[in-house]
Fold this sequence. Notes:
The structure holds 2 protein chains of 2 kinds.
Chain A (H helix, E strand, L loop, with lengths): L3 E4 L2 E5 L4 E7 L7 E6 L6 E6 L5 E4 L2 E6 L4 E6 L8 E7 L11 E2 L3 E6 L1
Parallel strand pairs in A: 2-11
Antiparallel strand pairs in A: 1-3, 3-8, 4-5, 4-9, 6-7, 7-8, 9-10, 9-11
Chain B lengths: L4 E3 L2 E4 L5 E6 L6 E8 L3 E9 L2 E5 L6 E5 L5 E5 L8 E8 L10 E2 L3 E5 L1
Amino acid sequence: QQQVKQSPQSLIVQKGGISIINCAYENTAFDYFPWYQQFPGKGPALLIAIRPDVSEKKEGRFTISFNKSAKQFSLHIMDSQPGDSATYFCAASIRGRGSNYKLTFGKGTLLTVNP
Amino acid sequence: EAGVTQSPTHLIKTRGQQVTLRCSPISGHTSVYWYQQALGLGLQFLLWYDEGEERNRGNFPPRFSGRQFPNYSSELNVNALELEDSALYLCASSLDGQGRGNEQFFGPGTRLTVL
């Protein structure tokens, strides 16, 4: 059972454009939603994260939009740059005391930003 | 501040052999997580250690095991290696397992190839 579904699998965007990656989750107990960026040969790097008590969080060019009722969240990369070309993973976990905090990941989106 | 470190970087083993992977968390972090990133399967949770104890494990057979040492470093052991164990093994650490700032930060991974 895939608890976090991510789309699209791959995305090509022109430099300066907006990259949008979407994720949907099934487990309503999830209460922490991070996004990771992974370059080839490297481990995933935490990019930005959101909790369900807010609908949007922005850090620089990266914005998470969260829709609790639809059980969906998305990553928007504004003014996309070739250096943003990487694989992006959404994830979800349960943070309450006594939980296991394990991250359940989406399958990833390979983003290519053309110059 | 040093990040999560893992060793070795690469490993090549043959079927049936045993392997030990090592991880040192960020200084001050007490929780260590292990994930497997196999081609086409995404990132899957393997094990979670906190304060020297195994707190949770994912859907992996018992031949995947590990431990956490008093200095919070950890090792992952895989016995009776199978071809499908070929993957990038990622270690992540977080501040603790009590919900206080448990963002997970990943190391660069160990690439295991089983021939």
